[in-house]
């Protein structure tokens, strides 16, 4: 089946099997391996990306369901070599150890901050309840999200990901 | 793992979807948000021959007012239900239960109708639907029919839906001004309910005038706790009378035993959580 999807600002058109998962499409067809697969049960949230501006687990969405949609992955957050404020905050606060959960944690954190630009600790923990980390004990992740919130007022989120706001160097390339 | 092969259709309307189901036969499966179906397909616990995806069926999404009820489209996502002003005003119990469903990512994709049609005994939305006396509007080859919540849930993961039928929308009688609470007991974030209690109370002065209580995961289908409701009506909304009424919570239940809890513990939880849910709903 033919699908057309905009991923990180670039439009792709591909034939896919209906059973292909969105995460497979991103990784195996587009080479966007920044989005990882952590579990087989949709528990861990490592594969979190944004679909039309909302966080989803890309292991639990078929590629065909994303037809006509806009997807943002962890690879689409940085601008001209500058990390997204949430990425920078994870770096500054040592919010990762092995780093496997980080792409999903960051994508969900960006979504959370779009909904709630100044979450308290409880709101951060609840906002990240769909993302598992087996290293950090979450303490520095929570710190990083709150730090990012202070740096990025009045909020990031879907608006910051809009394709038409992209610089030409990001919109170019791909198919 | 990835799903086994299937044929895929994405009809543009309810009638077209019903026709697609009829043509596909008994091994077809409806795809709404996919948050229960996709994991099951991936683990190959199910291998339908055809998937009928409802993503293009626009008239099944959204909430509207219709006289003494609100009507929730089956394809309305949990995220939308959580933020809908009609749901908040007239069926707060559904909003509160939806807040506890899974996690934010799943709530962005998962749908109200999909969760009900899935009929997981540990799912959080069937009990509120039963408590509020919701009606399920079902489309099939010979037109539409309406099934009360108490008859919609038939058994574990089994509803009144026939293979060629589709849940289109759910009519929820308005419970404007009622206090509501959903008390969920689970071990960790995003885990299924071990037991859940949906409570909705209309207080008049300090007295409980009406009460609706239903239980999650205390049987194969949601259980209406009529013993509790009857014991509450006419009583003062205080700790003593709520505790006495909650002692009836396990009546008529037949919970399963699993790794989380045995039958006796679930019955104990039903009583304790009913007390908490009713107290919170009654604001006492």
TrEMBL record, chain A:
Residues 1-77 form the 2Fe-2S ferredoxin-type domain. Residues 150-175 are annotated as: Disordered. The keyword Metal-binding applies. SUPFAM superfamilies: 2Fe-2S ferredoxin-like (SSF54292), CO dehydrogenase ISP C-domain like (SSF47741). Keywords: 2Fe-2S, Iron, Iron-sulfur, Metal-binding, Oxidoreductase. Pathway: Alkaloid degradation; nicotine degradation. GO terms for molecular function: 2 iron, 2 sulfur cluster binding; metal ion binding; oxidoreductase activity. The keyword Protein transport does not apply. It holds the Pfam family Fer2_2. Residues 159-168 have a biased composition (Basic and acidic residues). This is Carbon-monoxide dehydrogenase small subunit.
Automatic annotation (TrEMBL), chain B:
PROSITE patterns: FAD_PCMH. Signal peptide: none annotated. InterPro entries: CO_DH_flav_C (IPR005107), CO_DH_flav_C_dom_sf (IPR036683), Diverse_Substr_Oxidored (IPR051312), FAD-bd_PCMH (IPR016166), FAD-bd_PCMH-like_sf (IPR036318), FAD-bd_PCMH_sub1 (IPR016167), FAD-bd_PCMH_sub2 (IPR016169), Mopterin_DH_FAD-bd (IPR002346). Residues 1-177 form the FAD-binding PCMH-type domain. SMART domains: CO_deh_flav_C. Keywords: FAD, Flavoprotein, Oxidoreductase. GO terms for molecular function: FAD binding; oxidoreductase activity. Pfam families: CO_deh_flav_C, FAD_binding_5. This is Carbon-monoxide dehydrogenase medium subunit.
């Amino acid at each position: 089946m033919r699908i057309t999807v905009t991923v990180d600002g670039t439009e792709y058109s591909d034939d896919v099997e209906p059973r292909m998962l969105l995460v497979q499409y991103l990784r195996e067809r587009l080479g966007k391996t920044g989005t990882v697969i952590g579990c087989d049960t949709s528990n861990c949230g490592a594969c979190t990306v944004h679909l039309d501006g909302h966080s989803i687990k890309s292991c639990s969405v078929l590629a065909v369901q994303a037809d006509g949609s806009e997807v943002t992955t962890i690879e689409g957050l940085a601008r001209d070599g500058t990390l997204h404020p949430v990425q920078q905050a994870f770096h500054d606060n040592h919010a990762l150890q092995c780093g496997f959960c980080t792409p999903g944690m960051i994508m969900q954190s960006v979504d959370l901050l779009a909904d709630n630009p100044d979450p308290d600790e409880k709101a951060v923990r609840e906002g990240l309840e769909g993302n598992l980390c087996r290293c950090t004990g979450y303490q520095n992740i929570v710190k990083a999200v709150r730090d990012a919130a202070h740096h990025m007022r009045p909020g990031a989120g879907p608006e910051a990901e809009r394709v038409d706001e992209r610089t030409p160097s990001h919109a170019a390339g791909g198919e | 793992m990835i799903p086994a092969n299937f044929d895929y259709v994405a009809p543009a309307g309810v009638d077209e979807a019903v026709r697609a189901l009829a043509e596909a036969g008994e091994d077809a499966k409806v795809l709404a948000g996919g948050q229960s179906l996709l994991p099951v397909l991936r683990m190959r616990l199910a291998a339908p021959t055809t998937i009928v995806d409802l993503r293009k069926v626009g008239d099944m999404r959204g909430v509207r007012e219709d006289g003494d009820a609100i009507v929730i489209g089956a394809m309305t996502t949990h995220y939308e239900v959580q933020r809908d002003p009609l749901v908040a005003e007239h069926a707060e119990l559904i909003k509160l239960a939806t807040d506890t469903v899974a996690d934010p990512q799943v709530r962005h994709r998962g749908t109200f109708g999909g969760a009900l049609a899935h009929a997981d005994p540990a799912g959080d939305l069937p009990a509120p639907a039963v408590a509020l006396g919701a009606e399920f509007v079902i489309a099939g080859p010979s037109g539409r029919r309406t099934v009360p919540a108490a008859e919609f849930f038939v058994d574990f993961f089994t509803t009144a839906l026939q293979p060629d039928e589709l849940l289109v929308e759910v009519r929820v009688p308005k419970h404007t001004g009622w206090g509501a609470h959903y008390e969920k007991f689970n071990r960790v974030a995003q885990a299924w309910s071990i037991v859940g209690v949906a409570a909705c109370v209309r207080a008049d002065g300090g007295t409980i005038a009406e009460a609706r209580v239903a239980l999650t995961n205390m049987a194969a289908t949601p259980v209406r706790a009529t013993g509790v409701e009857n014991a509450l009506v006419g009583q003062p909304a205080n700790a003593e009378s709520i505790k006495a009424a909650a002692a009836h919570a396990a009546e008529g239940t037949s919970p399963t035993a699993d790794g989380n809890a045995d039958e006796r513990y679930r019955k104990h939880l039903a009583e304790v959580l009913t007390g908490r849910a009713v107290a919170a709903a009654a604001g006492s």
